[in-house]
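Issue 218. Parser rejects a valid record. Input:
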Amino acid sequence: MKFVLEVDMGETAFDGKAAEELGRILRYWGGNLKHYALQPGDGCDIYDSAYRTVGRWEIVQDATER
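Output the parser choked on:
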């Protein structure tokens, strides 16, 4: 299995605050993973601090599924 996280930072890399925003995203979604079985097919949209969809995480069986 593979855990895949994809985040689009936009043209401005979160208005020049990429480290702060990515850190927040990783902390929030990392802590939220305990609510999932983490089996192939599990996944969820990723939101930034302004509640805009900026990506997705998902569990896939193997790399050929991406």
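Fixed in the parser; the record now loads. Residues 2-65 form one domain.
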